[in-house]
## 1
Amino acid sequence: MYSIDDIQLQQWTVSGLRTRVTVLGEGPLALCVHGWPECWYSWRYQMVLLANAGYRVIAPDMPGFGETQGYPRIADYTIERTGRFLSDLVAEAGASRVLLIGHDWGAINAWGFALQYPQTVSRMVVMSVPLKPLGEHPPTRELKALFGDRFFYQLYFQQPGVAEAEFDADPEGILRALFCSPDTPRAQPQLGKAIAEGGGWIGRLGRPLEQPAWLTDEAIAYYVSTYRRSGFAGGLNYYRNIDHNWQIMQPLASARIECPVLFLSGEKDYATQRATVEQLSRLMGERIPDLTIKVLAGKGHWLQSEAVEAVNRAIADFISQRPN
């Protein structure tokens, strides 16, 4: 039986980038794609599950994260370029088909990869961010209309140099403020919702008054150390291409994902706006004919760490019912 201690950290060259890839197990390939602000480490528990289920599991630091090189330009961090990176990663692993797993920005990139490279994906497990229809207008335009003079983090991220300066100055502050459960008690935020007040995001989140049980001292230390080395700019550059991604995906706006898909979310996940199974089915069902949805009661956004047993059980059930 494999354990976390058996995970190997390797250096690969993928799409011309020096890439840190973690590897565990033998068998058909499973690829885990992390979100923001995370790295490969967020998948450690699922890597063990999948390896013991007979998969060779790889979990990279995505471009601009952890110990993987970033792209030379902000405009390179698109869903098209990321799709090529993931395709090259699968090829470098010696596979032609893959079980694809993604969370948060990893979910967005997993959806994009499955639509652009459908022949490569045998099945998918996607967490927290559903497949959404493209809006009528570019995302930042719609967000500005929705939020007006109120602060919203994705709009705050758009100006290069601003958010990373805040987060690089206090990586532990932003990570602890984000890595919380829905019921984690917080201090009163130092800043209000109006953009005119100035300031950044940390002061608007409210300092957590206790550390959630699922966030171990070892885990927070690993993430803080990772971001002290890498900085936050690479991860933020994905957000800076959401309008570009909207344009790129127009030809695939009505394309379907034909492989089996398991979608997992927390009942109190802000990324789904606390959507129910029925609401998620209506949102995604037309474009994903073989769709299984599970909403985990009481859970928030950081599913694979916050609800390890429930997530691993759902994945194990899903892969046991499908042929490789």
## 2
Amino acid sequence: MTQSDVELVVLAQAGDPAALGALLARHEAAMRAVALSVLGYGPDAEDAVQDAMLVALRRIGEVRDPAAVGPWLRAIVRNNSRTMLRAPRAVPVAEPEWLASPSDAPTPEQALEQSAMRDWVWHGIGHLSETDRLVTLLRYFSDASSYEQIAAVCGVPVGTVRSRLSHARRALTADLRTTTDAAHPDATATNDARWREGHDTIATAMDGDFDRVVRESWWPHAEMIVAGGPRGGRDLAVTGMNRDLTAGVRQRLRNAVASGNVLIWETDLISPPDDPDHCPPAALWLQVLRGGRVRQLTLFHPVPARV
């Protein structure tokens, strides 16, 4: 027997991905019709629909009248479309609210932790290509979240960042719709393990043994990139860390997030008391892995305020 909208909403609000997937599939044609009526045919209309589906994932619990979920979904598409129509450039500007992180809202990681569908979403992020996953993690789970900072970290133009994020949102939405019934690994356990690994590594480095860490966990020909600065190999990383230690700089892990072969550590940099402005307040370690070992590390100092 076909389930009603009311039944599907109730199940989705209880954390059933299959119910939400069925609900979105049922209303997708009507959502697309709204986007086309505002934006006309083209990629912007499709972006508006995909973003609306991601918004629904985050906000399905806000639906008070399950029988009116259709108009609710179409209203989200209409708002997205109007925002894009007002934008001075033909690029997606409607960030999915479950990923956006204004200063007065929970961080994306907190939002996902509060959702019963957390593992489903992280499973989808893990299916993105390396380039899409990289910009997604930077944009939604790090302090280097502005387009300009992501461009600096990745060494690409801002326009490329925008297009990659647009592609990532589409790919993520498509994956979520096809994996509603799949088994989703425990994302919390994975990220907790990455946190412990990062904490132990930073602690070892602070004890003056970073050279051993690099030898054991980096590939021999791994590349070290300082965003906007020099490039080199493992020696550059070890020399830089030892120089900071000699100057009295300390680091403390603040955030660790990982998906597939992309791993991000964010650390607080603590300057020595007699030279409080010796270094920037924070560092971001963007690591690309192969076989569990670092093949490339990009070091970046993000602007503290999120944009």
